[in-house]
UniProtKB/TrEMBL annotation:
Belongs to the dispatched family. Residues 395-544 form the SSD domain. One of its GO terms (biological process) is smoothened signaling pathway. PROSITE patterns: SSD. It comes from the Eukaryota. Residues 1310-1319 have a biased composition (Polar residues). The gene is DISP2. This is Dispatched RND transporter family member 2. Keywords: Glycoprotein, Membrane, Transmembrane, Transmembrane helix.
Length: 1319
């Protein structure tokens, strides 16, 4: 019952053509409307005043919804203060995130291989002069003093060596043309023929020189960056043309001739076999004296070693297939790629030249093109593009919030949701940094902004769908009841969805990759913090919007827009947009409330088979063939840009085409083995901070001076040499046999009678030596061996600052080559590891804690990704199942939900495999988050199905689809558009994030809407089937009043028998209302209930809508053919006395009223703005009329809102108590229709305070009756919202009866507030 002087709920329209004065509105706000048969006559006003007294003005809130509805500002202020405090604490405590190295943290840390690699890195870092470990037992000051060599002698030797090198350069003057040999420290450009032909021709060679001149040397900054000659000129580049020019005494590569090119080819063809056999090495080049030191150099012809250009051409500048052992006999060998070394160092100094001249795509001419380059800029350029491409994620987020504005039609609410996202991120950062004490914040954590925006969009759309549904079902209620009904469903949904999603993200914490662990903690925390904000901040914002913003819109009559031209244009545009909006609303209603439920239920067999086949195919592709490719590059060279980028092409393709790269960093290098004793493989650093490597932990039991240790080390040397995997490298001396070398050194020293100190280390002592002799002599050997070199000789021993032997490091080469193939690397690791482990078991006590490592960084990453990814996915799915089971307590729904989530993940990963994604760390991060991103839509449908008031599965499926499908489709489309926006990004991480989000959300939407619902159609729980029941803690849901013509399905089957039994029970009822068959046809709801008035034994129908009468108001929305049918039916039924109202909307007992959609509510409110009148017919018209039932159905459909819902009433002796109030606040209804702008004639205002003339047709519906006792506007406060719902008072209420011979109605309200959707 409306109160006096109440303001409108949505908006307050002020029309100058309103026929009723304001005072009449105020005095008749709480009166029943009387609709007269003759519109010219007016009946006396009857007042039915309901007064509810309250004992006190303030009481403690009885529900959370009441707190939100009555104190929204307090909730918002509390949340704002919390966000402010946490944000300041997070930003001020500790250091701010550092994104200067965005790829840091993508290596496995807490693995057996990872720990050893970290410790070995620490050993290398802490070894050196004045460091923790030293190669020499003495300081530099006295390192040569013990053997009588002073600094003067060292200086003389250094000068002699310098003169010797200068003489060599003078003898071989051609080498002085270049500024030294080329190397990895110089910038490199890769050339390829434009016509895909060979580069070994005069035109291509000169073309490379010309492109270098135009793109590099012509730049203004090149002179400041280039290496200088003694004449202060820029050094020439190490290019194919310059080497040919030097060989033929030409000053420039542009001066060479075809004869020079042919002669050089013949020379290379002659020397190439020796190079590929490993005989032509740098030590063979130079003077004859230097060549005589290596016996193998004698086999190399002198013309191949006279000038180092031959070796450098084959080693640095031409690809490995050019003149190889397989192609050497070709008459015209093909040179596919050629490398050019610029005389500029790699690094940030080349950034300006790259951005100005090399970033463009015109790096070609008619002969050659630059297809790859290595300027040392990859990390720096990645940071540059990372900042530049931030616009794409920002645009994606804006697209999500723009779709939110279009869906909600409220900028204020969208802005509040944006604040929710930012607040959740900042509080999560505070918890991540302060509470969890994580010191490293990886760059990938910023992807949480996009992911959390998508999660918030989904929850916001669902909330407003539920909110609109509550308002349309019970328009006469206040904010408290709307909020109570909405939060009953939304709160349950948020708990299930957020806990499931957060748990899925937290499951990735088990990964050994640092960045993935950090992302898992931060993203999971964001989801849980967002849960708190979505149940506090968002509802409070909606309450504020309804109270203060939606009520400020002012209605202007149509005449207001006809005064000027621009106003008419605005009004016309408004009508066009309103028409487009109505069209979209009708289309959406047809698609999501009619076609989609029908399509899912009718074709459920097809959907299950189709999506099951997709899931099986995705599982086969992901796990068996072809599977996700493991990475083949180490982290410094990991892909950052598109594969077509020159930097990526060099790392992925070209660097393996040149021999110097293959031998040093590629598959041509030998795999070394490093054995360590004295340092334990313990990583005591922060495992979640890649910058924290910890400290060295020394082995206190380590010793090698004991006789057993000396014997074992000597025998171990022979065992290593006897193994098939051992490789003897002549250039790189092995240290694994240092004990054998020491023994040989001792035997070579003859004892002296004059020098007693010399007698301590001579052949007089047998092996093994005593502890003191061993330590003294080993130190002497190290000092003596290192006197000829500038650096101390590395024998493998490590000493501390006091000269004590604390560690031993032995190294040797194996026959295994470095491989990017995971299987080959695994075979090497397992074989070597097994042999070394067995040998360590035979070691003496002081050497049993030894361990080994090798070049295993890539294998460590591959092994972690290959084993952890699927384990993390499986664990996430398992945890999601457990959380869903704990929130729904229904086994079947949890199993179906997890099945749909699993199918989504498998299909997504399968598509990523088909897109040729490599399982790098970034891709692994996305795949680990796949489960968390797949849960939202499925949980939406699961909770909606679970809370459905209907008992049979088909009704529940249709119910959940009607309720959730629109929001689900809108979120999926918004995220699809956001993903498309990020595709043009140069940074690969942004691009792959867009692809992943686009795929995962669309696939998740399909599996949730079709596969999950189809499973529920077949095996979904009915009533309490599959529910875990706890004694005394869980009340069974009552479905006893659920009598529907649609039929009911049991858990185990037997749908047809149950449907027949229901029909039989319905036919044997005591009394049937004559309009029940018609009402069943007209009702869009699956739930129909019956009742009768206790004051009369005749059945009564209560219209939820205020009935409209015929008047001069134009009929909007009624087709002419339907109007003709109405008039014909009036003539046929003339003289009867049954009230046939033009707008019958019979009450359904279901809390979800599908019949009233947003568009229908607009029509309903529009008709409230006109004066109409019911037509009266006799009570037996429906029984005696020959009018077919279909025509009556069509007549009602034409006159009423097209989805009015009927409540069929059974005859009983009990007053029915419905979910909704019978009368509607006229001020709210009339003022809350935005479509009133379309009504040009508003003079037909409905009169207030008139009954409809039939007392016995008035049924009091008291279960959720709204009692409005609002005080005057001046006294309205927050407590008035509670009073309007009758909360806080348990006294009976008396309704005076209008009939003097009938008793008054006494109402005893229950103290418990219905806070949910229950049937």
């Amino acid at each position: 019952l409306p109160g006096h002087g109440e303001r409108a709920t949505l908006c307050s329209h002020h029309s100058s053509v309103d026929s009723l004065p304001a005072t009449h509105h105020e005095t008749s706000e709480s009166q029943w409307k009387q609709w007269s048969h003759d519109k010219q006559q007016s009946r006396p006003v009857q007042h039915h005043i309901v007064t509810v007294r309250h004992d006190k003005a303030f009481r403690m809130p009885k529900s959370y919804s009441q707190v939100i509805a009555e104190w929204p500002v307090a909730v918002l202020v509390l949340c704002s203060v919390t966000v402010l405090v946490c944000t300041l604490a997070g930003l001020l405590v500790g250091n701010l995130p550092d994104f200067s190295e965005p790829l840091m943290g993508f290596e496995p840390r807490d693995t057996d291989i990872g720990r050893k690699l970290i410790v070995w890195k620490n050993v290398q870092t802490h070894t050196g002069y004045k460091k923790t470990l030293s190669l020499s037992p003495y300081t530099e000051k006295n390192s040569y003093g013990d053997i009588g060599i002073n600094r003067r002698q060292r200086f003389i030797r250094s000068e002699q060596g310098t003169r010797t090198r200068r003489m060599v350069e003078q003898d071989y003057g051609k080498d002085s043309f270049f500024c030294g040999p080329p190397g990895k420290s110089y910038s490199q450009l890769v050339f390829m023929s434009t016509t895909a032909g060979s580069l070994w021709n005069l035109q291509a060679i000169q073309s490379m020189c010309q492109i270098e001149q135009d793109k590099i040397r012509s730049h203004v900054h090149f002179g400041n960056l280039c290496q200088r000659t003694e004449g202060n000129d820029c050094c020439p580049s190490w290019s194919l043309g310059n080497y040919i020019a030097v060989l033929h005494n030409k000053s420039s590569c542009l001066e060479i001739t075809q004869a020079d090119v042919s002669h050089t080819l013949a020379l290379l063809r002659f020397c190439a076999p020796d190079y590929h056999k490993g005989i032509l090495i740098p030590s063979c080049i130079g003077s004859r004296i230097g060549r005589e030191k290596h016996s193998q150099c004698a086999k190399v012809p002198e013309k191949c070693t006279r000038f180092n250009g031959i070796y450098q051409l084959l080693h640095f500048l031409v690809d490995r297939d050019f003149l190889s052992l397989q192609t050497m006999e070709y008459q015209v060998p093909s040179l596919k790629y050629s490398l050019l070394f610029l005389p500029t160092k790699k690094g940030e100094s080349m950034m300006k030249i790259y951005l100005d001249n090399l970033e463009s795509w015109d790096l070609f001419d008619n002969y050659t093109t630059i297809t790859g380059m290595d300027l040392g800029l990859k990390q720096k350029l990645f940071q540059h593009y990372l900042l530049l491409d931030t616009m794409y994620p920002v645009l994606a987020i804006l697209a999500i919030f723009l779709s939110m504005i279009l869906y909600l039609r409220s900028i204020f609410i969208t802005f509040m949701v944006l604040i929710t996202v930012v607040s959740s991120l900042m509080i999560s950062f505070f918890l991540y940094k302060v509470a969890f004490r994580f010191t490293y914040f990886p760059f990938v954590n910023l992807t949480a902004v996009v992911i959390l925006s998508s999660i918030c969009a989904n929850h916001t759309f669902v909330f407003f769908d539920l909110w609109s549904l509550s308002k349309s079902q019970n328009p006469s209620a206040g904010l408290l009841q709307w909020m109570s009904q909405t939060m009953h469903h939304f709160g349950y949904l948020m708990l299930a969805s957020s806990f499931t999603t957060g748990a899925a993200f937290y499951a990735s914490y088990m990964s050994n990759i640092i960045a993935i662990c950090c992302f898992a903690i931060y993203m999971g925390t964001c989801v849980l913090v967002n849960l708190v904000f979505m149940v506090t901040w968002l509802p409070s914002s909606v309450v504020l919007y309804e109270r203060y913003i939606a009520t400020n819109c002012i209605y202007k009559p149509e005449d207001h827009w006809n005064y000027s031209g621009h106003k008419r244009i605005i009004f016309s545009l408004h009508r066009v947009l309103r028409g487009l909006q109505n069209t979209l609303c009708e289309t959406s209603k047809l698609l999501f409330e009619k076609l989609l439920p029908c399509g899912v239920i009718k074709f459920r067999y097809i959907w299950i088979c189709w999506f099951a086949a997709l899931a099986i195919g995705g599982a086969y592709i992901s796990c068996f063939n072809p599977k996700l490719k493991l990475p083949n590059l180490e982290m410094p060279s990991v892909q950052m840009f598109r594969l077509s980028h020159p930097f990526e092409r060099y790392d992925a393709e070209y660097c393996h085409q040149f021999m110097f790269e293959r031998l040093e960093h590629g598959e041509g290098q030998r795999m070394p083995i490093t054995l360590v004793w004295g340092i334990l493989p313990v990583d005591n650093g922060d495992h979640f901070n890649p910058k924290s490597n910890g400290t060295l932990v020394k082995d206190t039991t380590f010793t090698i001076q004991s006789p057993d240790a000396q014997n074992w080390l000597l025998a171990f040397c022979q065992k290593v040499k006897n193994q098939t995997f051992y490789y003897s490298d002549l250039e790189q001396k092995s240290t694994v046999c240092f004990m054998e070398e020491f023994h040989t050194w001792m035997d070579s020293r003859q004892c002296s009678q004059q020098d007693h100190s010399f007698n301590l280390c001579c052949n007089h002592f047998p092996f093994p030596y005593g502890s003191e002799v061993f330590l003294h002599c080993i130190k002497m050997m190290i000092t003596e061996q290192g006197r000829d070199g500038a650096e101390t000789y590395d024998l493998g021993l490590r000493f501390d600052g006091e000269g004590n032997l604390v560690a031993l490091v032995l190294q040797f080469q194996t026959i295994y080559h470095y491989s990017f193939n995971y299987s080959k690397a695994k075979q090497f690791y397992n074989k070597i590891g097994h042999w070394i482990t067995e040998e360590m078991k035979t070691a003496p006590i002081g050497l049993q804690n030894g361990w080994y490592t090798s070049k295993l960084e890539l294998y460590n990453l591959q092994h972690s990704l290959s084993t952890e990814t699927m384990v993390v996915i499986g664990l996430s799915i398992t945890i999601s199942f457990v959380v869903l089971l704990l929130t729904t307590w229904n086994v079947l729904l949890s199993v179906f939900s997890v099945t749909a989530i699993t199918g989504t993940v498998l299909v997504t990963v399968g598509l990523l495999v088909l897109l040729e994604w490599q399982l790098n760390a970034v891709e692994s991060l996305f795949i680990s988050a796949a489960v968390g991103l797949s849960t939202d839509f499925t949980v939406n449908y699961c909770i909606s199905y679970h809370l459905c008031p209907h008992s049979d599965r088909l009704s529940r499926v249709a119910f959940s689809l009607k309720q959730m499908s629109c929001a689900t489709a809108m979120v999926a489309s918004a995220l699809f558009s956001a993903g498309v926006i990020m595709l043009p990004a140069t940074v690969l991480a942004y691009r792959k994030l867009g692809i992943f989000i686009m795929m995962i959300k669309c696939i998740s939407c399909g599996f949730a809407s079709f596969f999950f619902q189809s499973l529920c159609c077949f095996f979904g729980p009915e009533k309490n089937c599959g529910q875990i029941l706890w004694p005394c803690t869980y009340a069974l849901k009552d479905y006893s009043d659920d009598s529907r013509p649609n039929g009911s399905f049991t858990c185990g089957g037997g749908e047809k028998q149950t449907r027949l039994r229901k029909v039989q029970e319905s036919n044997t009822a005591n009394e049937q209302y004559e309009l029940q068959p018609l009402a069943r046809k007209l009702s869009d709801s699956f739930d129909n209930s019956t009742s009768t008035s206790k004051l009369s034994n005749r059945p009564s129908v209560l219209s939820e809508d205020i009935q409209l009468q015929d008047s001069t108001c134009p009929r909007i929305g009624i087709h002419s053919s339907l109007e003709t049918d109405r008039q014909n039916l009036q003539e046929t039924l003339l003289g009867h006395h049954v009230d046939l109202c033009q707008c019958p909307a019979l009450q359904t007992s279901s809390p979800y009223k599908h019949g009233i959609s947003g568009a229908e509510a607009e029509i309903h409110r529009e008709r409230l703005c006109r004066d109409c009148r019911c037509q009266k017919y006799g009570p037996k018209a429906w029984e005696n009329s020959n009018r077919p039932e279909a025509e009556i159905y069509k007549f009602h459909r034409g006159l009423c809102s097209h989805s009015s819902s009927f409540n069929v009433l059974d005859v009983s002796n009990e007053t029915s108590v419905s979910d909704f109030e019978q009368t509607i606040k006229f001020a709210e209804s009339a003022s809350s229709c935005p479509n009133v702008l379309d009504v040009s004639n508003s003079s037909c205002a409905a009169e207030r305070g008139h009954l409809n003339g039939k007392r016995d047709t008035l049924r009091l519906d008291l279960r959720e009756t709204v009692f409005d006792i609002s005080p005057p506007a001046s006294q309205q406060n927050s407590s008035s919202w509670k009073n309007r719902l009758g909360l806080g008072s348990e006294e009976p209420v008396v309704l005076p009866n209008s009939q003097p011979d009938m008793p008054d109605v006494w109402i005893k309200r229950s103290s418990a507030q219905n806070s949910g959707y229950s049937s």
